[in-house]
Design brief:
By secondary structure, the chain is of the alpha/beta class. The chain has six helices and seven strands; from the N terminus they run αβαββαβαβαβαβ. It has helices at 17-32, 41-55, 100-112, 130-136, 150-159, 178-185, and strands at 36-38, 59-61, 85-93, 120-128, 142-146, 162-166, 189-192. The strands form two sheets. It has a five-stranded parallel sheet with strand order 5-4-3-6-7, with helices on both faces. The chain has a two-stranded parallel ribbon with strand order 1-2. The longest helix is centred in the N-terminal third of the chain and has 16 residues, at 17-32. The chain starts with 16 loop residues before the first helix and ends with a strand.
């Protein structure tokens, strides 16, 4: 599991019949599994706390990572004075990981002149929620690219001046797999995360 299931704070099915069905499916999957592998200790703990009787001897954690072959090409040159700073985000921006605070701060910095129009380009690549898309389209220099093939997303990471990482307010101890690819891209990371 790269993400939790019903206990995951980002789970969106709500309550009632859908949640009961998902809980039943979750139990069946864990019951039938030869091994339950989670990407973080937190996710592993969610399953062990709820299903210790089913998985006590068949669970482990294998931490996320990256494929070094994806990052063998050269890297972007450092930002030069007078060029627009390129900020790239890859992944999902929605719910408690919306990116709205970043976009609001950028809009304010552009409006006040603290950041000159044309001085920054922001590329949002991946699933971008409707609220973030609507705001992004009203900010000069911000573009929304939607889902991209992995190779193209990696190329954008490697060519960025800064990579944007947005943490979840509902799951502050979640460790996104994106972080590992960002580290492999060897670009500075601007991380917007909850306290702690």
């Amino acid at each position: 599991f790269r993400d939790g299931w019903v206990d995951d704070p980002l789970y969106r099915a709500g309550f009632g019949l859908r949640r009961a069905l998902d809980r039943s499916l979750e139990q069946r999957v864990l019951e039938k599994a030869d091994m339950v592998i989670s990407a973080t200790e937190t996710i592993d703990r969610w399953f062990v706390d709820r299903y210790r009787h089913l998985i006590s001897d068949k669970h482990t954690v294998i931490i996320n990572g990256f494929d070094p072959a994806d990052f063998e090409q050269g890297f972007a040159a450092d930002h030069k004075h007078g060029e627009a700073m390129r900020v790239v985000y890859t992944g999902a921006l929605s719910g408690s990981r919306s990116g709205i605070p970043f976009l609001q701060a950028l809009r304010a910095a552009l409006s006040s002149g603290d950041v000159p129009v044309g001085g920054i380009e922001v590329e949002l690549c991946g699933y971008i929620g409707a609220d973030a898309q609507a705001l992004a389209r009203r900010i000069p220099g911000v573009s929304v690219h939607g889902m991209l093939p992995h190779r193209e997303a990696v190329a954008r990471m490697r060519s960025a001046n800064v990579l944007l990482l947005v943490g979840s307010q509902k799951s502050p101890d979640a460790l996104t797999g994106k972080l590992y690819e960002y580290i492999a891209a060897r670009r500075p990371i601007l991380a917007l995360t909850p306290d702690g």
